[in-house]
Amino acid sequence: MERPLTKHIKPGSSAYNLEEYKQVGGYAGVNKALKNMTPGEVTNLVKASNLLGRGGAGFPTGVKWSLIPMDGDKSRLKYLVCNADEMEPGTFKDRYLLEGNPQQLIEGMIISAYAIQAEKAYIFLRWAYKKAESGLRKAIDEAYKAGYLGKNILGSGFNLDLYVHSSAGRYICGEETALLNSLEGKRAIPRTKPPFPAISGLFGRPTVVNNVETLSWISHIVENGADWFKGLSLTGTGGTKLFGVSGKVKNPGTWELPLGITMRELLEEHAGGMTSGHKFRGALPGGASTDFLIEEHLDVKMDFSTVAAVGSRLGTGTMIVLDDKTCPVAFVHNVEKFFALESCGWCTPCREGLPWVEKMLVSIEEGTGKMEYLDLLAFNAKYMGPGNTFCAHAPGAAEPLQSGLKYFHDDFVKHISDKKCPWR
Amino acid sequence: MVKIRIDGKYYEAEPEKNLLETCLSIGIDIPHFCFHPAIGSVGACRLCAVKKFKDAGDTKGRIVMSCMEPVTEGLIVSVEDQEAKAFRASVIESLMTNHPHDCPVCDEGGECHLQDMTIMTGHNYRRFDFPKRTYNNQELGPFISHEMNRCIQCYRCVRFYRDYAGGKDLNVFASRNHVYFGRHEDGALENEFSGNLVEVCPTGVFTDKTLKRHFTRKWDLSNAPSVCVHCSVGCNTIASERYGSLRRIMSRYNGAVNGYFICDRGRFGYEFVNDEKRIKNVQLRSGNDKKLESAEYDKLFSSLDQSISKNKKMVGIGSPRASLESNFALMSLVGKENFYHGISKKEFHLTRTIVEFLQHSGVSTPSLKQIEKADVVLVLGEDLVNTAPMIALALRQSARNRINDEAKGKGIQLWNDAPVRILAQDAKSPVFIATPFIDSLDDIAENTFRATSRDIGNLGFTIAQKVDNKAPDTKTENKDLKILAEKIALSLKKAKNPLIISGINCGDEIIVYAALNIATALLSAGSNVMLSMVFPECNSMGLSLFPGKSFEDAVSSVENKKIDALIVLENDLYRRASEDSVNELFKNSNKTIVIDHIFNKTTQNADILLPAGTFAESEGTIVNNEGRAQRFYKALESKNAPKESWRWVGDLIKVRDTNPSVLWTHFDDIVESLVNELPVFLKLKKYMPGADFRMLNAKIPRQTMRYSGRTAMNANIAVSEPGLPKDPDSPLAFTMEGQQEKPPSSLVPFYWTPGWNSVQAMYNYLNEPNASMKGGDPGIRLIEPIEDIKNIYFKQGSQISEAKNDEWLIVPVYQIFGSDELSSNSPSILQRIQEPFVLINQKDAGKIDMNDGDTVQLEILKTKFKVKVKIENSIVHGVAGLSVNLPGMPYFDIPGTGKFHKL
Predict the structure, then answer these.
(1) Letter string b/e over residues B672-687, b meaning 16 or more CB atoms within 10 A of that residue's CB
(2) Are B303 and B284 in contact (CB under 8 A)?
(3) Where in chain A is the domain with CATH 1.20.1440.230?
(4) pLDDT tens, B646-668?
(5) Do B98 and A187 touch (CB under 8 A)?
(6) Confidence (pTM)
(7) Is residue B82 pLDDT above 90, yes or no?
(8) Beta carbons of B619 and B732 less than 8 angstroms apart
């Protein structure tokens, strides 16, 4: 099985420096793109590969790049931003790539910036990823010294400056437009779309924002082509994915696997199945803001469209498992409390709905809940639906809530009628 | 225009608007909070949700926010859709989870946009049964009260304060349901337009602190359309009364002038009307040493004896803060040859020069609304935020025009506020500011020029010469000046809507002439140039259209002579000229009659002191700096109220001629006389409603239909139902009876339409948000540019002498709080007035061994005065700025030379 993204990552060892990375083929992609391809050709290649964004939304990367105006107005800057603000609860895959092979990301960013003709690029990095930060800074330094960053890269006439920006620490900065506001030094609240960042993004300029995992693919696609990429998945979507599992499993972790493996395979073959004494009750397949899947879904293929077809989202592909010894109400409360605390406070349904949800869940968990709360929780989940709010934060929070109410309805009822949590 | 379908009906709509403002202008009520026409849409509150359908076959639709929805051809929406309605009610419900249920004891109740929207959406029962989130409040100064628990986080306050008004010390802090709107620490809000928060905030978070001292519910107020009397911009206001005292001033929409807002001086300066320093009765002095004492009205006539009968020598001194009618009455009493404008010769000359220029030069003078559309602006010598604050606010908006074309090119509609600002970043249209010291508009200026007033004038002359080489050159050697002038000239020439702003307050004619020359030069180059000149007082422009002479001329006319009667109308002469010359005038008058509102130095010299009605107690017309004549109406009426000045003068005329040929009983009578005598005011008669105007056979009520206590109010005096006070002077009535429907725009006493109790009701009085009032905006312009252009260039020159070795050039520093006479008598404004100061740069201060905060004695033309030193490094070497007319300060003829003496 090919593992292009992680084959050079050895847990426990430090990441390759630039020389070591070049020896295993690193920066061949930059050479090929800047010397033998036009920016338009790079974009078309990525489009043809159908690489879907790995940040959670799954938007086709090549299409996103093609929205950038390429009218050659050199006096007006364009930007490439790498969204390394990995804060989705349960997700740790980008950290693996950032700490494990920062040069791979940098190489991908150089090619991507070349494709959209952006002369400035930023890595917007989660504040807590200190080890990744020092690794990235070191890697960028090496890249400058080797002439892969700065002026006239490889004599191509293309210039690129790359900066690491350590975020101030709020979850909403992972939302691309809130990220742009934060990077500009403003309050981290999302922006309305349209206009899309491709038209007016960072500092009002055309901007592309891509996830770490997405950008890490670019050099491989340039080197090996679109068909190769498509062939890596089991479903035809293209590529492998960094999947992850956390919870009461024998072997929690992250693995690079083809898109299209089943949830059962991920859970049992790679995560080793549930630890002894624990049974599988359900999982959030792609981080906290995805809907529960339960036992009946174990054979669902882990890919964007297939998970969506059963009422959830692939998201980041890192699963959080709910076992039978953990209270589902407390589980849901835990994620809803996170979302309530991380609301930016801009729009009404999120700002006011989430704390109400959180208070009701606390009350149910502590045994003071009322039956009406079940209706009110369902009402709030619908109230905070997509389109009703300003961004996807609250609709994301609604997903574990509404699916938790659906699949664990009896557990919620028992808390209320017994006036206590059965798991305590 | 495009065709759209709303709930099955078709409408024509403008594609540059969003759906919400389109619906509001059609009369379709969509509840909303965060949208405000002045600051555009952001889509934060989610209240304005409607259903949008893809096509005729789509029955499900999806919820969209109407404030963020562009109006496009074929748009199909439903406001009445059940899901949309339920969603809107849910938004209110979730806001109510934390909102205190305080309506009965909340100041905003009865005028609360949240109340209106709650009723409109139909939310009622409370399902939330947890404790509410609360906040600490802050002390924000004498104007605004802070009550954060009422906040519904609509973000309007910070968007208005920071984005629209350029304020820096109000912001949103924290996140999620803890967001807090306030200052970084307690303290008075610094921005000069902070008072508008009171109207912009849809709940009672920010409320009028002065109103709290005499709180009245909106429905209990008796109101009148009024005009601000504190500067020459002439913003429209609403003055409201109860129990015989003026309760508050709020903004009255005028699409051509102030729009939705007014400045803090205009909003909070009214308290002088209720002040104990008001002259409440006729005051008479008998004999030279007798004190001024209250007297019966009848005694007035015997006291006048023969002083003002025919053939007696009378001198009448009018005032630029008195109405046209009052000034006219005085002129009729004393005769044109004996009528003086009560302003300094310099001010008289400059005002006349400017007005004649505006009448004959072909240069147009813009309304505030037109100022907002300017694309290149030059400010010459005028500290706008202190002398004409709302012009400063308009300039902030005009500076944003730079990005408009690019935004439209990128498909970003101008109402879509956040993307427009993000696209713009720091880009601004060019604003050039040339003033002697730091200006709060500097943050929008492309270039600032700090210099003496002479050099500022030189800059202007040089610019004019570079625009048209026929304009006179200056002989300046200043290289930087020439380079900057070249840049500005080029920018003005290329502009589509260039604007020159200057005024009289700088006190140096070289600056005024320079501004006029630039306008002339641009006009001759085929430009659409606009010229806005700021005058010191609310009716400076109006008074200048009268015949008459300056104050100095009055003094010289009584030199070595005695006059029988001196009548001073609403003017504290000690603010106009040196103490000596004013004393001289009083000394030579046998009988001094003063008509004014408040006891001051001039009134102390009166033999007869007559209590003049203020703007709130009178009907009158004043002309703003644009040449727009606007009328204010009585808000207060009671038996013992001071009369309008023109009525007092009318009494004096009756004494002079026992059978006067002209007898003014009602307001329309004096307007008739005015218009006949001075045809320049003809439009007043043609375009302003007379007292006989009726709406459906009824007068226009000053009171809402819920006005309460009418019969009980005076029960402590008499139990029987009092007759209603009559108002024979105007179409308004002191009653709640009459047509509650929208009156003509110049006669709107309050905003209320069914379902809209808050100030937002004003939408229904407009053609559409941001446009004109229905039926046209109030006021009538008296001056329009004409075709008969005879333009000459003014020659360069300054009457101000240069400072010698140990002297400084002292320039005036106006203060929005303190320099204006009437508003400085308001307790809330007083708290914001600083003690008299002089601005000087660090190096110069070092020369006289002074530090920041020291007290120094300043001597100008033999008048000595102690002031505090304030280090201000933007002011150039050799120049010092003296605060103007702060309480306790004597008159200084500045700009002029002065010396400092260490104490």
Answers:
(1) bbbbeebebbeebeee
(2) yes
(3) 328-418
(4) 999 999 998 888 777 778 999 99
(5) no
(6) 0.96
(7) yes
(8) no
B639: confidence class by pLDDT, cuts 50, 70, 90: low
Q: Where in chain A do CATH 3.40.50.11540 domains reside?
A: 18-228
Examine the pLDDT at B60 and tell me if it is beyond 80. yes
The verdict on a CB contact (< 8 Å) between A342 and B176 is yes
pLDDT tens digits, one per residue of B403-418: 999 999 999 999 999 9
Q: Which of A268-277, B194-203, B720-729, B788-797 has the lowest mean pLDDT?
A: B788-797
Contact state of A352 with B411 under an 8 Å Cβ cutoff: no
Flag whether residue A75 sits within 8 Å of chain B, measured between CB atoms. no
CA A155 to chain centre: 34
Give the pLDDT mean for B213-221.
Answer: 96
The pLDDT, as a whole number, for residue B10 is 97
CATH among 1.20.1440.230, 3.30.70.270, 1.20.1250.20, 3.90.180.10 for A328-418: 1.20.1440.230
Nearest-Cα residue of chain A relative to residue B95: A352
The letter for the amino acid at B886 is L
CATH of domain A18-228: 3.40.50.11540
Structure tokens at B322: 């008195």
Tokens of B2: 């495009």
Residue B718 CB partners (closer than 8 Å, separation 6+): none
Q: What is the pLDDT of residue B790?
A: 67
Q: Does B404 touch chain A (CB under 8 A)?
A: no
- Identify which of B886, B844, B848 has the alpha carbon closest to the alpha carbon of residue B865: B886
Task: Inform me whether the pLDDT recorded for A316 exceeds 90.
Answer: yes
The two tokens of residue A176 are: 């691309």
Looking at residue B492, its pLDDT comes to: 97
Calculate how close chain A gets to B238, using CA atoms only, in Å.
33
Question: Of B98, B176, B179, which is closest to A340 when you measure between CB atoms?
Answer: B176
Identify residue A269 by its one-letter amino acid code: E
A107-116, B137-146, B514-523, B712-721: lowest mean pLDDT where? B712-721
Nearest CA in chain B to A188: B175
Mean per-residue pLDDT of chain A: 96
Residue B162 touches chain A, beta carbons under 8 Å: no
Find out whether B484 and B380 touch, Cβ atoms under 8 Å.
Answer: no
For helices B297-304 and B645-656, angle between their N-to-C axes, nearest 10 degrees: 50
Give the best residue of A339, A347, A359, A362 to mutate against chain B (max B CB count within 10 A): A347
CATH of A241-323, one of 3.30.1490.20, 3.40.50.720, 3.40.50.300, 3.10.20.600: 3.10.20.600
Contacts of B712 (CB under 8 A, 6+ apart): none
| Rounded average pLDDT over B423-430 | 94
pLDDT of residue B473: 84
d(CA B449, CA B460): 11
Asked if residue B722 has pLDDT above 80, the reply is: no
DSSP assignment string, A101-157: -HHHHHHHHHHHHHHHT-SEEEEEE-TT-HHHHHHHHHHHHHHHHTTSSBSSGGGSS
DSSP labels for B12-73? EE-TTSBHHHHHHHHT-----SS-BTTTBB---S-TTEEEEESSTT-SS-EEEEGGG-B--T
pLDDT at position B288, please? 63
Contact of B170 with chain A, judged by CB distance below 8 Å, is answered with no
Contact across the interface for A348 and B412, Cβ inside 8 Å: no
Average pLDDT for residues B819-823, to the nearest whole number? 96
Strand blocks (E) in B110-251: 144-146, 171-173, 180-182, 206-208, 222-227, 236-242, 245-251
Parts of chain A belonging to CATH 3.10.20.600: 241-323
Residue B18 pairs with which residues in a beta bridge? B70
Alpha-carbon gap, residue B653 to B663, rounded angstroms: 9
- pLDDT over 80 (residue A73): no
